[in-house]
Design brief:
The protein has about 150 residues and is of the alpha/beta class. About 25% of the residues lie in helices and about 30% in strands.
């Protein structure tokens, strides 16, 4: 599925639409170069699960931020990982046991990120499309059928 995101508001709205669809064990993988809106999408999703004024800093330096919500959500930024196995050290498996994970830079998990994750994976790739963004969305597990509900 391809979604046209006209601006940051549309990207935030996509995160808000995703939030009520998340379940414990779900992973949302966000691909795209710097400045494409990965953190904007994650912030919209997290604020929809917590509260509209939730402080949602980028976890670039901390690698992960945990939020109390239903389901609980962990926001990972794997850009600084040197080895895919480091994902275990920062609690990726535990986050999925207790809630869901939003993962920026999932390519740092190697060629097969699914080996670190459960079967229910939503993949979103953001890229430039003129002055706006194009989100290419695909799903595995439960997300294969859920992606039809993602019209922003």
């Amino acid at each position: 599925m391809k979604l046209h995101l006209a601006d940051a508001e549309a990207t935030t709205r996509l995160g808000q639409i995703l939030a009520p669809l998340l379940q414990v064990g779900d992973s949302v993988l966000l691909y795209g170069p710097l400045g494409m809106g990965k953190s904007t999408l994650a912030r919209g999703l997290i604020r929809a699960l917590t509260r509209p004024d939730e402080d949602v800093p980028s976890p670039t330096f901390t690698l992960v931020q945990f939020y109390e919500s239903d389901p609980a959500v962990a926001h990972f930024d794997l850009y600084r990982l040197n080895d895919p196995e480091e994902a275990w050290e920062i609690g990726l498996d535990e986050a999925l046991d207790d809630g869901c994970a939003i993962i920026e830079w999932p390519e740092r998990l190697g060629d097969d990120p699914a080996r670190f994750l459960g079967p229910d994976i939503l993949t979103i790739t953001l890229q430039e499309e003129g002055p706006s963004r194009l989100a290419t969305v695909s799903g595995a597990g439960r997300w294969e059928s859920k992606i039809n509900d993602l019209q922003p």
